[in-house]
Design brief:
Blueprint lengths: L1 H27 L2 H52 L3 H30 L16 H7 L2 H47 L3 H38 L3 H14 L1 H26 L13 H28 L3 H20 L1 H11 L10 E4 L2 E7 L3 E6 L4 E6 L8 E2 L15 E3 L5 E7 L3 E5 L5 E5 H6 L3 E2 L3 E10 L10 H16 L6 E11 L4 E10 L6 H18 L16
Antiparallel strand pairs: 1-2, 1-5, 2-3, 3-4, 6-7, 6-10, 7-8, 8-9, 11-13, 12-13
Helix pairs in contact: 2-3, 2-6, 5-6, 5-10, 8-9, 9-10, 13-14
């Protein structure tokens, strides 16, 4: 069924392309276009005739080179028959083998230049033994060969350019060697030396001729490649057209197949899972998690099979091969990451070290695990934020069950706190990254959350206590433990009511604290509701003021530190 669907979609997409291609001949039948086409044909014919003439010249040069090599080989064979020592015979044999290789190369060049094709294409290949590894890799061969095909022209041209450069560098050396020998022959008057130089002269003439032939042959190949090359724009347009008519269409169909398969499986799963008990619970039970994991695995498998089946039906072995290469790569990578996948699978099944509905620490802040999936949800009730993180972030972490009285953060927004460095302010912004305080007067101070927590913030917005020490003179020692504390407590209570703090006062006590070095110290203990937190320092100052007012009213002496100096006799 998929085969027919794929071909129907392909036909619908290709209809406009076919219509356009049918219009092109009609358009090209215009006189101007016909004339241009005829001109191009004439230019191509002239170019082909010129190329054939060059080929004939090169073939003549190769034939001449072969004749020279044949003569030199005959000379070496005769010299071997006349040689008297084994060393000389071995030297001549090596030279003869080298000439034989040059002759074989000349024969190959002649055939390749005459035919215009690689001779090695027609050589029968040896039958290879069956190897399952090679057979497995052969599945990926079409994709690799396609990648090589895309660059074969550029690589071949680059190789020819390198060869041409090499032969062009060798040609001056060969010419120099030949001219030097000729110069020595013309200058010497020794007939024996002249004869010896004349014996080696044909060898270097043949070498020069061979290098020239190689230069001409390589240049001919390069000219042929450049002659056959199309313009970049035309080549690109043709490539784009071919791509959208073939592989581009198949890739588009593959995307549709993937999307359709994912949506189909998701639709079936969402409609069937509703009938499974426990589906609507806040924290999903184990069997629901198993079904969801199986659903995801089936989605991946069927999606991959849909792509493979599509490429198989349209018989595009290159795309099929690339798909297989990709799958093998994923499997190979999964081998190294298998422990991580096992850990994430445990987390998704809610049987790992981190579980839904429990408390965990992340980035120095406690969180409640709301939901575990490929992307997990963490929430902090006091910060009033929800954090989405990938499941890999939970690997290596632990969670625990939490008590209802567990604190999720030392404060909330609009609370007033005092830090260990003495800073007091109201919280205007809270997150797991930063905490912002507004100080009295409107100045703002921002802390990194980790630094803020390290300063052990004291939250005043719940309830808070003020303890202020007040000293009286030792002359009041008789009444300092009972009478005076009661009088001071009543006086402070009266002023608290008078200044409007009574509704927020939870507790007030005045007690004897200690006998100091120069005074009898009383302590005023006042507990207030958190609504008075912004006035924390004002209340401390007011208590001190009320103590001084009470001392003035009841004539209590307020001592000050004294230093007693004892003078020696």
């Amino acid at each position: 069924m998929k085969k027919y669907v794929a071909f129907i979609i392909t036909a619908l997409i290709l209809l406009p392309c076919i219509a356009i291609s049918q219009e092109n001949p009609a358009a090209s039948s215009a006189p101007g276009v016909a004339a241009q086409t005829q001109g191009k044909t004439d230019d191509q014919s002239a170019s082909e005739v010129e190329a054939q003439q060059n080929t004939l010249e090169i073939l003549k040069s190769i034939v001449k080179s072969k004749t020279t090599l044949k003569q030199r080989m005959d000379e070496k064979k005769k010299a071997m028959e006349k040689a008297s020592s084994e060393t000389e015979k071995q030297y001549l044999s090596e030279e003869l083998a080298q000439l034989d290789k040059q002759m074989a190369s000349a024969v190959t060049d002649f055939e390749m230049t005459a035919t215009g094709v690689e001779v090695g294409l027609f050589v029968a290949k040896k039958k290879e033994r069956f190897d399952w590894k090679n057979e497995l890799l052969s599945l990926a061969e079409p994709g690799i060969m396609e990648l090589k095909r895309l660059t074969v022209k550029a690589r071949h041209k680059s190789k020819l350019n390198d060869e041409l450069t090499n032969y062009q560098e060798l040609l001056p050396v060969a010419i120099k060697a030949r001219t030097r020998i000729e110069s020595l022959i013309s200058q010497t008057k020794d007939p024996v030396l002249a004869a010896a130089l004349k014996d080696i002269l044909p060898e270097y003439k043949g070498l020069e001729s061979q290098v020239k032939n190689k230069v001409d042959l390589v240049q001919l190949k390069l000219d042929e490649i450049e002659r056959q090359e199309e313009s970049v724009i035309d080549s690109t347009q043709d490539s784009v057209k071919r791509f959208f008519k073939t592989r581009g269409l198949y890739l588009f169909l593959a995307v549709l197949a993937c999307t359709g398969m994912v949506l189909l499986i998701r639709f079936i799963y969402q409609n069937l899972i509703r009938f499974v008990p426990g589906y609507k619970l806040e924290y999903r039970p184990f069997h629901i998690r198993i079904l969801e994991l199986v659903y995801r695995a089936i989605t991946v498998v069927l999606t991959v099979l849909a792509i493979i089946a599509l490429f198989y039906f349209v018989e595009d072995w290159v795309l099929l091969s690339l798909t297989i290469i990709f799958i093998l790569g994923v499997i190979w990578a999964a081998k190294h990451t298998l422990p991580m996948y096992l850990d994430t699978s445990k987390l998704m099944l809610n049987v790992g070290a981190v579980r839904e509905g429990e408390r965990m620490m992340y980035q120095g802040v406690p969180w409640r695990v709301k939901y575990i999936n490929y992307f997990c949800l963490l929430e902090n009730p006091d910060l009033d934020i929800m954090l989405r993180i990938p499941i890999t972030e939970l690997v290596g972490k632990t969670s625990r069950r939490f008590d209802p009285h567990d604190s999720w953060f030392p404060c909330r927004k609009n609370d007033w706190v005092i830090l260990s460095d003495g800073t007091r302010g109201g919280v205007t912004h809270l997150s797991h990254e930063t905490v912002e305080l507004v100080l009295r007067g409107g100045a703002k101070k921002t802390y990194q959350t980790a630094d803020f927590l390290a300063m052990t913030p004291l939250n005043l917005s719940v309830n808070f206590r003020i303890k202020e020490t007040f000293g009286i003179d030792y002359g009041l020692q008789k009444d300092a433990t009972a009478t005076i504390p009661d009088l001071l407590s009543a006086f402070i209570q009266e002023n608290i009511e008078k200044e409007g703090y009574a509704d927020d006062l939870l507790n007030l006590r005045v007690e004897f604290a200690e006998a100091g070095a120069s005074s009898l110290d009383l302590v005023v203990i006042a507990d207030f509701k958190g609504s008075q937190a912004p006035l924390y320092n004002r209340l401390r100052r007011s208590i001190q003021r009320w103590c001084v007012d009470a001392a003035s009213q009841y004539n209590w002496g307020i001592p000050f530190p004294q230093i007693t100096v004892h003078q020696g006799a």
